[in-house]
Amino acid sequence: MSGYVPPTTFYLEPHWCDERLFEVEPFNRSRPLLDPCCGSGRVTTAARQAGYRVQVSDIVDRELFPIG
User: Fold this and answer.
1) Can you give the pLDDT at residue 1?
2) Dihedral class, residue 39 (left if φ above 0, else alpha if ψ from -120 to 50, else beta)
3) Range of 43's domain?
4) Which residue in 7, 19, 32, 67 has a CA-CA distance of 20 to 30 Å to 45?
């Protein structure tokens, strides 16, 4: 096994981690959060469910969060 990981690979943490992050960390609600490596969108979804505005990007456009 070479240890090579394709650049489009992403890590999936358990959903509870994303939800808990926004339960315990007070982020500034007057500015949007940036998820620069949104992957499957779990952090972004949890942030939006917690009432935050979020801007997303990733090296691969998975069309999870369409513009418009």
Assistant:
1) 56
2) left
3) 15-56
4) 7
The pLDDT tens digits for 30-59 are 999 999 988 889 999 999 999 999 999 888
How many domains does the structure of the chain reveal?
Answer: 1
C-alpha 48/C-alpha 54 separation (Å) is 7
Residue 67 within any structural domain of the chain? no
Contacts of 48 (CB under 8 A, 6+ apart): 54
Does residue 44 lie within any of the structural domains? yes
Q: What angle do CA 58, 63, 65 make, to 5 degrees?
A: 80
49 contacts 16 by C-beta, under 8 angstroms? no
- Asked, for residue 61, whether it belongs to a domain, the answer is no
Domain presence at residue 26: yes
CA distance 65 to 68: 9
